[in-house]
Amino acid sequence: MLRHVCLLMLVLVTGIIFAGCGTSQSAASQEDTSHEIVLGSQSVKASKTLIVYFSWSGNSAEMAKYIQEQTGGDLLALQPLEPYPSDYDACVKVAKDEVDGNILPKIANLPNDMAQYDTILVGYPIWWHTAPMIIGTFLSHYDWSGKDIYPFVQSAAMSQEHFDNSMEFVKKYARNANVHDGLYAKSANHAKIQQWLKENSLLQKN
Q1: What angle, 0 to 180 degrees and rounded to 10, lies between the N-to-C axes of helices 160-173 and 133-140?
Q2: What CA–CA distance (Å, rounded) separates 144 from 147?
């Protein structure tokens, strides 16, 4: 009996630690878009805003696409060169190995540069108490001098400590960037997302 209780507790703790993955959707969400940047409504006049994100369960993708609709920016779904496992437990293990080994996984669709963009919104789930290591891969690839970065984050646990950890992670890897206060919200909380975009003057101008 005691052994069964201990096993149950271990499963629950692992689920909270890896809360951003979710359990209802598979890694097929990595992503249902192509490897190209999806141009926003401002692209006819060269959008200076990019919404870039990583999503495994689909929740961060939902959030990013809503933000694109509200800002008119371009959209980029980061694709790991070696896709994460579709199985939840296997994905948890790979993510843990990356964190423990400080491994930055390769990205299949990394743009050559960010010269076109002044404002970059970076979205991700919380994995192992912080941002996924693939976000570090993206951020460390560029010099962000003169660029504004706005993180937007979602998770199941909604731990403020985990969000704060992820903000420090972004600041560490986004060298020379002006990293603004991020958004921490459920992907379906459009009111909170709208308020954050408004406060940061990120809403599309008509």
Answers
A1: 30
A2: 5
**Per-residue tokens: 118:** 């002044």
Question: DSSP secondary structure string, 55-88?
Answer: -SSSHHHHHHHHHHHHH--EEEE--BSSPPPSSH
Specify which residues 133 forms β-bridges with.
none
> Partners of 122 in the beta sheet?
52, 151
Contacts of 14 (CB under 8 A, 6+ apart): 92
pLDDT tens track for 66-120 = 999 999 999 999 999 999 999 999 999 999 999 999 999 999 999 999 999 999 9
What token pair was written down for 153?
Answer: 């984050």
Residue pair 39/74 in contact (Cβ under 8 Å)? The answer is yes
* Torsion, Cα of 165, 160, 199, 146 (10° steps): 0
- Report which of 34, 35, 71 is spatially closest to residue 51, judged by C-alpha positions: 71
Note the residue count of the chain. 206
Using one digit for the tens of pLDDT, what is the confidence trace for 172-202? 999 999 999 999 999 999 999 999 999 999 9
Both tokens assigned to 136? 């570090």
What tokens does 107 get?
Answer: 């990205």
